[in-house]
Design goal:
The protein has eleven helices and no strands. The protein has 237 residues and is mostly helical.
């Protein structure tokens, strides 16, 4: 069970010292960080799918020289803009909401995934066993699913897990400045922003969502390190 004693203290304290409660205090305060944790774990995995499946096809598809050039030029343009600034611009253009926040984070994360996956795919395509499969008349589709994807999936999983923590921090930062999830939806960044007014009389309102952000980001980083140690052949004896 979630150790909710700090939230009980915060709820009791704030109800006693704050006559008019803000939006942050509406609803069950004890469940807001927990609800946001569940939302973070489910929502943060959604933007990962698009970069994963947008990357492999720029070099694996037969005769994709022009496609590869066009995609990489688009990635160069996106890379020229800092990820946070790009996400902020997209949210500002589309409006602040959960859906638009996910779109912004997804678009800002695509260039890094495409470049990484492209480099991995090029390395695998130039390997001897792929050349041998082509010499034996194996179709390109079979080479993709039998040789290229199995050898690239390890690095994709590692990068995906490691990048989730950065996406959580990015989403919390955008919500903190009012460009992400809007109250009364639970969002750690928005909770931190609203709790600034009460940091002197109730600092735990800042501590709880801040600790949740730190622990979640740290957890995904540790999982990424573990997967790297387990899947990276260069680290194996």
């Amino acid at each position: 069970h979630w150790p909710n004693w700090p939230l009980r203290i915060a709820s009791t304290w704030c109800c006693s010292v704050i006559p008019s409660r803000p939006v942050l205090m509406d609803g069950p305060v004890r469940t807001r960080p927990v609800s946001r944790w569940r939302r973070a774990l489910s929502r943060r995995c959604d933007p990962e799918a698009i970069p994963i499946f947008s990357g492999p096809w720029d070099k694996e598809t037969p005769g994709s020289g022009q496609i590869d050039t066009v995609i990489m030029r688009i990635m160069d343009m996106l890379t020229a803009i800092p990820a946070t600034l790009l996400a902020l611009s997209i949210v500002a253009a589309l409006g602040a909401s959960m859906t638009n926040l996910l779109i912004a984070i997804t678009i800002s994360s695509i260039p890094g995934f495409v470049r990484l996956i492209r480099s991995v795919v090029i390395t695998v395509v130039e390997s001897d066993y792929v050349e041998a499969a082509r010499a034996c008349g194996t179709s390109d589709v079979r080479i993709i699913y039998k040789h290229i994807l199995p050898n690239a999936i390890g690095i994709i999983v590692i990068q995906t897990t490691s990048s989730i923590s950065g996406m959580i921090l990015q989403a919390a930062g955008l919500s903190f400045i009012g460009m992400g999830v809007q109250p009364p939806q639970p969002e750690w960044g928005a909770m931190l922003s609203e709790a600034r007014e009460f940091m002197r009389i109730s600092p735990i309102m800042l501590i709880v969502p801040g600790v949740c952000i730190i622990l979640t980001a740290l957890s995904f980083n540790l999982v990424g390190d573990g997967l790297r140690d387990a899947l990276d052949p260069r680290l194996k004896d």
